[in-house]
Amino acid sequence: MSAFDRIVFCGSSEFALPALKALADSPRFRPLAVFTQPDRPAGRNPKPAPTPVKQLALQLDLPLHQPEDINSPASLEILQDLKPDFLVVIAYGQKLKRAVRQSAVYGAVNLHPSLLPELRGAAPVPFALWQGIIQTGITIFRLDSRMDAGPVFYQKPLFIFPSENATELLQRLAYIGSMCLVQFLEDYYAKPWEPVPQDESKATYSRKLEKDDFHLDWNQPAQEILNHIRALALNPGAFSCLRGQQLKIMEAEILDKKGTQPTGSIVSIYKNIGFSVQTGDKKLLIRKVQPAGKKVMEAWAFHLGAHLEKGERLS
Fold first, then answer.
1. Are 143 and 165 in contact (CB under 8 A)?
2. What's the pLDDT at 39?
3. 25-80, pLDDT tens digit by residue?
4. CB–CB of 203/121 below 8 Å?
5. Which CATH number characterizes residue 249's domain?
6. Pairing between β-strand 64-65 and β-strand 33-35 as defined by DSSP bridges
7. Containing structural domain, residue 152
8. Is residue 163 a part of any domain in this protein?
9. How far apart are CA 119 and CA 141, in angstroms?
10. DSSP SS3 for 184
11. How many Cα atoms sit within 13 Å of 138 on the Cβ side?
12. Helices in the chain by DSSP H: which ranges?
């Protein structure tokens, strides 16, 4: 076993799954153990549910730990007994204090879905789309005491596809990032190097999404509304209200047609496609929606059931 084969993985969300699978499948980097968040209620179900990482770790027959606090003396003792070379941390959900980071010979590395120092924080993918950024990427960096501010080992820029939503982009970044992570470990073993400090003057931030962020404003220009829709699809979804009920807008495109109708008005119904809504400038063609309590569906299918009428307004 080489000096860099001892890996402990810390992760919780779906974004971490491709990396965990890639490490487990690697003949060199199969994790000694996996740390993930404790089972907790998810959504409306009061029953505690396992994290996606826990489910995969059990399938892969990897030793599993779920401490309430990874910085506790008990967790630290487990890590010290494991003697890892690296802690690989991806969407874990807990801050690692210095003692935990230093339990690994070469510290803790994080896979982050942005080109740091751009979009540090909780929601880099949604805010990249919402802000209309055309290029993002993944960063592998060494964790330190500040959020997403540690020195950078590796970056891979990636263009954002024009029609890509947050779910699709996050999945793509997770998959590509998993391959980059394995390559990084192999390269670092062959020839270690010092990470490069981030340029603090270029740092931007992505705050945690709040409920007020989910409501669409039809007074805005079509491009800004489209960016907003893409940034939140498919989960949690940007919504509007129609007939007093919440309607999530999951997919749309801009029609190069200006109009004089009130913003939020349904302007036209397009057979087998969907319906258009007036924005602050152009019209937005709605292609997929999710009515309250139902699954995502084609906008045309929603119209057939709801019998939409021209002039009705979304608010």
1. no
2. 96
3. 998 999 999 999 999 997 777 899 999 999 999 999 999 999 999 999 999 999 99
4. no
5. 3.10.25.10
6. parallel
7. 7-206
8. yes
9. 14
10. helix
11. 22
12. 17-25, 52-59, 73-82, 98-101, 124-130, 166-190, 222-232, 299-306
